[in-house]
Automatic annotation (TrEMBL):
Domain Methyltransferase type stretches: 51-140
GO MF annotation list: polyprenyldihydroxybenzoate methyltransferase activity
Region Disordered, residue ranges: 229-250
SUPFAM superfamilies (alphabetical): S-adenosyl-L-methionine-dependent methyltransferases (SSF53335)
Keywords: Methyltransferase, S-adenosyl-L-methionine, Transferase, Ubiquinone
Organism: Micromonospora pattaloongensis
UniProt-recorded name of the protein: 2-polyprenyl-6-hydroxyphenyl methylase / 3-demethylubiquinone-9 3-methyltransferase
Amino acid sequence: MRTLPRNDPRQYDELADQWWRPDGAFEMLHWLAEARARLIPPARHPRAVLLDVGCGAGLLAPHVAAKGYRHVGVDLVRSALRQAGERGLTPVLADAGALPLAAGAADVVAAGELFEHVPDLPGTVAEVCRVLRPGGLLVLDTLNATALSRLLAVSVAERVPGVPRGIHDPRLFVDPRVLTAECARHGVRLAVRGIRPTLPGLLRWLVRCSRPGRARIVPTWSTAVLYQGRGTKDGQGRRSAGPGVNREGG
């Protein structure tokens, strides 16, 4: 694989065959997607929209398929979006900082492992909150801007066989206090909690063991490495009749 700058989206094209491999480079993202889905309730009306920002290849899809949403996925990487479309998402090629949706179009916005990749955190948070309807739900997970997080997510993780190097730029990791304040500026009251993989699954992952079984992501007392956020946008408002988006390539 050629050497690219840290956090360069082109890395995902070169890893396109890894998304759905059980033991592939994105194995831990599957664990996180399952945990994120547990924060998303069933749809409250037949036209409810779940906007999956930074959807990748659609790893959230199997965990929300029965919840009744129109699942719209936004990503910058065409190769990932093609796979997301095969999993039932409506794919939209766009930057998270310039979402091609009307204000209030989404009933739920999921932003999984997104904010630690964006160079403009305030602008991206503003967009994610803008497209969320009043009373709608934002769910997210990301990496904290701590020395421990940088050590584990970069220095340690990138030494694990099969884990790609350079996916993260630790300078972009996000302090939960900053993220909470940015969400509050746009009317979303965000509550955060620490999360971590279960220990047996994490140990299997660290040694790339072939034994079956996937780790679960569970709550923990510390937000020092990984954390989830869940928040509701202020106001009730009228729900959107539809997302009004352009499909990928359309």
